[in-house]
Design goal:
The protein is built from 14 helices and 20 strands. It is α/β, with parallel strands linked by helices.
Length: about 500
């Protein structure tokens, strides 16, 4: 289990007039016709395509590698050099090449876009000032040799830094010996202790020898940096389950850009889509395509699925207008039902399967954790209700679940009604038994998150929300008893605890 506090790192004539207006009016008419048939490309025939690759909605990570070193000058009958194999300009040139080759391999293995900037060689405080330029997202410092003062100058005051030192992977570094809690913040520090010389850079930011240890940290930092500044459209407004402070905390402390859209403004555009023959025909075609996917079992009325695709198209229009790739909906068990003639459950699953971020209930207690895990893993996340742990088991259930949980394959599904209303279309997604998963369970809007791992034991069919799994808790399950809050959790495929814990700092 990991438990971290989220802290901010001090971290877009009349006749002549009529003749002049005519071309503009014709152009406007054509734009309106295009919007009817296309709507930002949303209603194009292949706008929903299950064979299309999963969207990568995260930003490219710009990494600035910095090689810090000193050129030693021989002095007879005196100690004239420190530990370390980088003592000359020629050795520094060779080491810069070695670093660039290692980072090129990391970028190729990452699975997300990384821009590795050219290695900056730093020997002086003036050189170090260039390393702190704002063009980078992450500073990757290689302190081979050099003074403590130069080390302090090379670490940025703002933004994250990773420190890489060599033991066996190349010429040994002086700072493999000299790094300590004098410079680095430990995991726990007594309040009366002197502050570390490198500020917010911690012992967890140090990597020895293994470039793979750099890669997972970069993945975690991409998640944290992606979370900050994410614009999310909140239909019906924003709230927090059992904590009214959650939207404020998400916006002010975590940097989310929450765009609230009222149902009063949304209802007319949804009604127009429902009355459009072109859009209804498109939704019917997508419905046929969806129901033909292997493992798809329809157990509700087909028109509910078609209406879910109409709702999908209108939400995609809304996201395009607000230049957003994230969406949430409030009152999804009440207000939207008569408006859309279905439930939002299947629609949210479709958006997540495509690679967008879509959450029910507009609960900003859990949404930040979902965004973080989505960016870290590059996979959809499942927002669900939790249950009381017992005998190492919890049950996870909700009516809005993605099918494409690993970002590639569509899991088998039964399309049923939404449980509480017995209306609309809701997916019962069957997760493979034995699938390892990671959970984040926030303590409301306090900034304290609990993470743990589990293994799917079964996909039961209880009288609860449709997508449901009994999950075996991996670890000391009784510790979870003290964390069993009546709130939402986030689930994602795989083991991502170390990345989540590292990012949550």
């Amino acid at each position: 289990m990991c438990c971290r506090s989220l802290q901010r790192r001090k971290f877009l004539g009349a006749a002549a007039g009529a003749l002049a207006a005519a071309p503009a009016a014709i152009a406007a008419s054509r734009r309106a016709a295009a919007a009817e048939s296309d709507g930002h490309g949303v209603w194009a025939p292949d706008a929903w395509n299950p064979e299309r690759g999963f969207l990568d909605v995260g930003k490219k990570l710009r990494v600035q590698p910095v090689l810090m070193y000193a050129v030693a000058q021989r002095r007879e009958a005196s100690s004239w050099k420190s530990w370390g194999g980088i003592q000359s300009e020629a050795a520094a040139v060779d080491e810069a090449r070695r670093i660039e080759a290692e980072l090129s391999r990391i970028a190729a293995q990452a699975g997300f876009p990384i821009e590795m900037l050219p290695v900056l060689k730093v020997r002086t405080a003036e050189d170090a000032a260039r390393a702190r330029a704002p063009a980078r997202d992450v500073t990757l410092l290689y302190p081979a040799t050099g003074s403590g003062g130069l080390l302090r100058s090379s670490v940025p005051e703002e933004g994250p830094a990773i420190v890489f030192v060599r033991h066996r992977s190349g010429p040994i570094y002086y700072w493999y010996e000299a790094l300590s809690t004098r410079y680095l913040a430990p995991r726990r520090r007594a309040s009366e202790a002197e502050p570390p010389l490198l500020g917010t850079t911690t012992v967890d930011d140090v990597v020895v020898d293994d470039p793979g240890e750099i890669l997972w940290r970069l993945r975690a930092l991409r998640g944290a940096l992606g979370l900050r500044g994410t614009r999310i459209v909140a239909l019906g407004g924003a709230w927090g389950k059992y904590d009214a402070e959650a939207p404020r905390f998400a916006a002010e402390e975590l940097g989310l850009d929450i765009v609230e859209v009222t149902y009063e403004s949304f209802e007319p555009r949804l009604a127009a889509a429902l009355s459009s023959e072109t859009k209804r025909a498109r939704a019917e075609a997508w419905t046929a395509q969806y129901l033909s996917l292997p493992g798809t079992d329809l157990r509700t009325e087909r028109h509910f699925v078609a209406s879910a695709f109409l709702l999908y198209g209108v939400i995609k229009e809304l996201l395009a207008e607000h230049r957003s790739q994230a969406f949430t909906i409030k009152d999804c068990m009440r207000t939207i039902l008569p408006m859309s003639r279905t439930t939002a459950c299947l629609t949210l699953g479709l958006l997540n399967d495509e690679g967008l971020l879509a959450f029910c209930e507009s609960d900003f207690v859990i949404i930040p954790a979902g965004i973080l895990l989505r960016y870290i893993t590059g996979q959809p996340v499942f927002l669900h209700n939790s249950t009381f742990p017992h005998r190492g088991i919890v049950t996870c259930a909700h009516c809005a679940a993605p099918r494409r949980m690993n970002g590639v394959r569509y899991e088998p599904v039964k399309v049923l009604t939404h449980y509480e209303s017995e209306f609309g279309a809701a997916p019962k997604v069957e997760i493979p038994e034995g699938q390892e998963v990671t959970f984040i369970d926030p303590e409301y809007a306090t900034g304290r998150w609990l993470g743990f791992r589990g293994r799917v034991a079964s996909n039961p069919f209880y009288e609860i929300c449709r997508s449901q799994q009994d999950v075996e808790i991996l670890g000391d399950w009784e510790r979870l008893l003290d964390e069993a809050r009546d709130s939402h959790w986030i689930m994602v495929y795989g083991d991502h605890l170390r990345e989540a814990g590292y990012a949550a700092r």
